[in-house]
Design a protein that fits this description.
Layout lengths: L2 H7 L1 H5 L1 H6 L8 E3 L2 E3 L8 E2 L8 H7 L5 E5 L9 E5 L3 E5 L13 E3 L4 H11 L14 E6 L2 E11 L3 E9 L8 H15 L3 E6 L4 H10 L2 E6 L1 E6 L1
Parallel strand pairs: 10-11
Antiparallel strand pairs: 1-2, 2-3, 4-13, 5-13, 6-11, 6-12, 7-8, 8-9, 9-10
Length: 233
C-alpha cells in the first residue's frame, strides 16, 4: 500500500474529521439539516460543518436543543446570535503509516453488547465526557480482561473508507504500567493499515503520558487541530 498517496488523499477528511465522518462512514447515523450534521447525543456530542463561513443558523437551530453543548474539531462556524463558541487548546492529531510490532501480552478480545456495561464503567472512570451509551455502535472495540475485569480498551470512532480514528484508548488505574494501551494501539493500527485505511488519533497536549506513548510507538504528529464547544443559549 502506498501510504504516502493515501495520506495525501485523506488530507481533507483529516482536516475536518467530524464533518467527513458524518458525510461518509456515519451518514446513516447522523442527523442533517442544511450545512450542519451531528451525531445523535446518545452516540457522541459532536457536530460538523463543511466550512467556517457557511450559513448555519437554521441547521444549528434544527439540530441542537436549547442549553445543549456540542463539540467541533478542525472547522468551526461563526456563531449566530444566541450561541457561544468557546475555543480550547488545539489537539495533537497523529497518524501512523507503517505497521508496528505488537508486544506479547494477554489476549485481545472483540467487545460487544455483553461487554457494554464494563466499557461504560471504564470510560466513565478514565475517559469521561465524550463516551456515550451508543458510542460503541460507531465502530469496532477491543479490550483486555484481567482478573475478570476490563483492564484496558480501544475502539474506532470517526472515519471514512480510507482513514479510521482510534479512540477511547484507556487503561483502568489498577492495571497501569503493564503495556496494555501500547499493545492495543499497535494491534488496531496494524489492522487499519491492512484494511487500506490510515490510522489516526487525537490526543490532548495536556495529557503528556498519552502523547509520549504514541510518540514512542512511532506515531507522527500531523498537525495541531482546532477544538471548540458550541452552546445554544
Amino acid at each position: 500500500m502506498n501510504t504516502h498517496a493515501l495520506e495525501q488523499r485523506v488530507g481533507d477528511a483529516l482536516d475536518n474529521p467530524f464533518w467527513s465522518s458524518l458525510q461518509s462512514l456515519h451518514r446513516d447515523i447522523g442527523r442533517h439539516a442544511g450545512a450542519v450534521s451531528r451525531y445523535p447525543a446518545e452516540y457522541a456530542p459532536f457536530l460538523g460543518v463543511p466550512a467556517a463561513h457557511d450559513e448555519v443558523a437554521g441547521g444549528l437551530e434544527a439540530l441542537v436543543a436549547p442549553g445543549e453543548a456540542v463539540y467541533l474539531i478542525g472547522v468551526a462556524p461563526e456563531p449566530p446570535p444566541g450561541w457561544r463558541l468557546e475555543a480550547f487548546r488545539p489537539l495533537a492529531q497523529m497518524i501512523r503509516t507503517a505497521p508496528l510490532p505488537v508486544a506479547d501480552g494477554p489476549e485481545i478480545l472483540p467487545l460487544g453488547e455483553a461487554h457494554r456495561a464494563d466499557v461504560l464503567a471504564l470510560t466513565a472512570l478514565v475517559y469521561p465526557h465524550y463516551f456515550r451509551e451508543r458510542t460503541m455502535d460507531m465502530g469496532r472495540y477491543f479490550g483486555i480482561y484481567q482478573d475478570g475485569r476490563l483492564a484496558a480498551m480501544i475502539g474506532e470512532r470517526l472515519g471514512t473508507g480510507e482513514c479510521r480514528e482510534m479512540s477511547a484508548i484507556c487503561t483502568h488505574l489498577d492495571f497501569n504500567g503493564r503495556g496494555h494501551a501500547g499493545r492495543l494501539t499497535a494491534m488496531l493500527a496494524n489492522d487499519s493499515l491492512a484494511r487500506g485505511a490510515l490510522p489516526f488519533l487525537h490526543v490532548s497536549h495536556e495529557n503528556p503520558r498519552a502523547l509520549g506513548l504514541y510518540e514512542r510507538l512511532g506515531f507522527r504528529h500531523r498537525c495541531d487541530i482546532g477544538f471548540w464547544s458550541l452552546r445554544r443559549a
